[in-house]
Amino acid sequence: MIINFLWLIFGFTAFIQFFYLLVVFGKLSYFRQNNTDQPDQQLEGVSIIIAARNEARNLEVLIPLLAQQNYEAFEILVINDRSFDGTREVLAQLMIQYPQLRTVTIDYTPAHVTPKKYALTLGIKVAKYDVLVLTDADCLPATQDWVKLLTRPIRMQGKVFALGYGAYHKEKGFINALIRYETWFTAIQYFSFALWKAPFMGIGRNLAYRRQYFMDQKAFKGLWHILGGDDDLYVNRHASRKNTAVVIDPRSITYSTPKKKFNDYFLQKQRHYQAGRHYKAGAKIKIGIYALSHLFFWATALVLICNIKAWELILLITVIILARAVLQWSTFNQAVEKLEGKQKVMWTMFFDLMYLSYFWVIGAKGYLSKTVRWK
Question: 82-93 pLDDT, tens per residue?
Fold first, then answer.
């Protein structure tokens, strides 16, 4: 009786997994974009906003690259949030060299608000242009066309939000491989659902939206007490099928240097998962169905293999597992090629199992935690 029940769960979760990999995530994997090089007809001004705390070294690298963007009218607005590493002095020197650069300095944060949201809100209030591009100080644009490509849906299609992709540099080591796999998978989820006209999140490393919409909606209202969520929760609350577009072009992405130590990465993801508990119910369901079916697919498969003796049934389970692995490998590789170019994703089944334990251990801790910090 129990074995029959396990077979039922295994079959049902296998169906859900195949459906997500083939249909839901396949929306990105098999995406075909037309007229990616169409000429811009509306080159309205853009404000690039960066909230930075103790980022002197990163800003010295980033600002010259941003100043070279292939765009007619833009400003670079850095909010210096209580830095004590010489950021103020570095920005003063950079402003002499780059007239596009402006700064806002924050000396203290009110007790009832979270630091990054406060910094971003001040920056958005004084931004010169209505089209905003948000990124972090440790992110570098892939090309000089980054601003033009990322803001195109807002400027030319009347969208409020444009969701971009933030990649991580490839380096040696297991932590780097795990971080990049998790980043790919997260992007596959939010890009795919956005393509299905059901956007649920974006990332602050590469995001664009309208300033006036932010001001009209008082966008961080109800979110001030949550440390994270200046990007994904804001998009989750306000993005819709009509006002949101994704930007799928390797020239439009940013690159960041990933964490080197697992503890640092753990704290980062803990903050992200904590914000996730404030998502709308629909977003939680989209993520939860896949996550639960993923867990029960592997759990029931292993229990069945260990408790049945008929080699034909063990072979059947093995074939289903391998078929899912092949589909996952194909889906991931085609999706990542759309996002980053000719990047190959290897060992997907291994990292799938690693992600399974990672998601339920770190995710649960972050979801329940109340004591995380920005910097």
Answer: 999 999 999 999
pLDDT in tens, 51-86: 999 999 999 999 999 999 999 999 999 999 999 999
Q: Residue 142 to residues 173, 202, 363: CA-CA distances in angstroms?
A: 23, 18, 30
- To which H or E segment does residue 131 belong? strand 131-135
Find, among 37, 69, 79, 228, the residue nearest to 140 by Cα: 69
The DSSP annotation for 270-288 comes to HHHHHHHTTS-HHHHHHHH
Residue type, position 366, single letter: G
- pTM: predicted TM-score of the whole model, two decimal places: 0.91
**The residue to which tokens 């709308």 are assigned:** 280
> How confident is the model at residue 363, as a pLDDT?
60
CA 304 to chain centre: 36
- DSSP assignment of 347-363: -HHHHHHHHHHHHHHHH
Q: Is the pLDDT assigned to residue 227 strictly greater than 90?
A: no
Kindly report the number of other CB atoms within 10 A of residue 48's CB atom.
30
